[in-house]
Design a protein that fits this description.
This protein is an alpha+beta fold. The chain has one domain: Cytochrome P450 (Cytochrome p450, Orthogonal Bundle), CATH 1.10.630.10. Helix content is 46%, strand content 8%. The strands form 3 sheets. Strands 1-2-3-9-6-4 form a 6-stranded mixed sheet, sandwiched between helices. Strands 5-11-10 form a 3-stranded antiparallel sheet. Strands 7-8 form a two-stranded antiparallel ribbon. It is globular, with a radius of gyration of 21 Å. The protein starts with 12 loop residues before the first strand and ends with a strand.
């Protein structure tokens, strides 16, 4: 990358290690970068060189929705990145720009609309009720993650994807290996290949299906020549992995509610604004480590007097944008009645997570069901003894021991 820019000095390059942070602690490195300015420079643990980091709310939305910043150009260069297996695969939907990205997303858009997600609401409610029934029947203590928060998102995303019940365990295992770089790049890449081979077979068998699940929509799109089989498989893998990430988000949400019982009591006593409350929890929770995938500036762009040169790598932090005091007054506080709440927890722009509506549905169902069915639920261990995942890209408790 070029060290040339406008006459003002470049900000220093800050090393950003991947720390296993306890509970819902906000990353102190990110907090420091936010204090340094809205546009800073970072070096992550893997890859090469440095990259720009954008943290202000408006700037994050600009970079993620501006065609002057592209994902596809990452293919042409090495960039500093969080994990070894963040090396882009050519043709992967996460690294495509419009119009190809738009074409692929369009193939499954119907499944992720409000109507599409509503299609699985009652089935999801039934699945969740069964899991809670089993946990309550077994009696306390219980691991809320193993009993409910883990299997529920797996069942829901598999339902939406059209994955048969018998195959869901394998999908869950592959996803865990992909999401945790602690196993090493070889293990993650092998899990991705095995998941890809599975979806290739499933999508191929659905070419003539008229069902509304994701693999049937992808099979139909391949059948009519709208997308290739390789594109369909890549998109299916991405959606499956993203759908399961809700496990960790929900784990953080309930860890927060169990360590701050006054929040749970407010939700229990005033059920009507729960949708708004869930959005506030989603805004506040630091759901990931560091940053996700980079973009490349396709031309020179100036932000806050800093010139980002064509070819420079750029990251955005949605966590930082969600704490921008210019958009969210008193951003460190959890205000369950906050409104409006235009958080960007599911991203923004063309690459915004398509499963955001589904994730909200799952979070609302979990809060409603667990607060009502297990009103006396509390941690079974001191808060500092709750084990959190180590070496994971998406943060969350490994286990959540509870009693009631």
């Amino acid at each position: 990358m070029s060290e040339e820019t406008v006459s003002r000095p470049l900000p220093p390059v800050r090393e950003w290690p991947v720390a296993d942070l306890p509970g819902s602690e906000f990353d102190p490195v990110l907090a420091g970068l936010m204090c340094e300015g809205p546009v800073t420079r970072i070096a992550l643990p893997d890859g090469e060189g440095w990259a720009w980091l954008v943290t202000g709310y408006d700037d994050v939305r600009l970079v993620t929705d501006d065609p002057r910043f592209g994902r596809e150009a990452v293919m042409e260069r090495q960039v500093t990145r969080l994990a070894p297996h963040f090396v882009p695969a050519r043709g992967a939907v996460g690294f495509l720009d419009p119009p190809d990205h738009t074409r692929l997303r369009g193939a499954v858009a119907a499944a992720f609309t409000a109507r599409g997600v509503e299609r699985v609401r009652e089935r999801s409610r039934t699945l969740l009720a069964g899991l809670v029934d089993d946990m309550v029947a077994a009696g306390p203590p219980a691991d809320l993650t193993a009993a409910v928060l883990g299997p529920f998102p797996v069942a829901v995303i598999c339902e939406l994807m059209g994955v048969p019940d018998a195959d869901r365990g394998s999908l869950h295992t592959w996803t865990r290996l992909v999401l945790s770089p602690a196993h090493g790049a070889d293990v993650s890449e092998r899990a991705t290949r095995e998941m890809s081979a599975y979806f290739a077979d499933l999508i191929g068998s659905r070419a003539r299906s008229t069902a509304e699940d994701v693999t049937s929509l992808l099979g139909a799109a391949v059948g009519r020549g709208g997308i290739t089989e390789e594109e369909a498989v890549g998109l299916a893998v991405l959606l499956q992995i993203g759908g399961e990430a809700v496990t960790n988000n929900s784990g953080q949400m309930f860890h927060l509610l169990l360590t701050r019982p006054e929040l749970a009591e407010r939700l229990r006593s005033a059920p009507e604004p729960r949708a708004a409350a869930v959005d506030e929890l989603l805004r506040w929770i630091p759901h990931r480590n560091a940053v996700g995938l980079s973009r490349i500036a396709l031309e020179d762009v100036e932000l806050h007097g800093v010139r980002i040169r064509a070819g420079d790598a750029v990251y955005v932090s949605y966590l930082a944008a969600n704490r921008d005091p210019g958009v969210f007054p008193d951003p460190e506080a959890i205000d369950l009645s906050r409104g409006p709440n235009p958080h960007v927890s599911f991203g923004f722009g063309p690459h915004q997570c398509p499963a955001g509506t589904l994730a909200r549905l799952e979070a609302e169902l979990l809060v409603d069901t667990l607060l009502e069915r297990v009103p006396g639920m509390r941690l079974a261990v001191p808060p500092e003894e709750v084990p959190f995942k180590r070496g994971a890209l998406i943060r969350g408790p490994e286990a959540l021991p509870v009693t009631w």
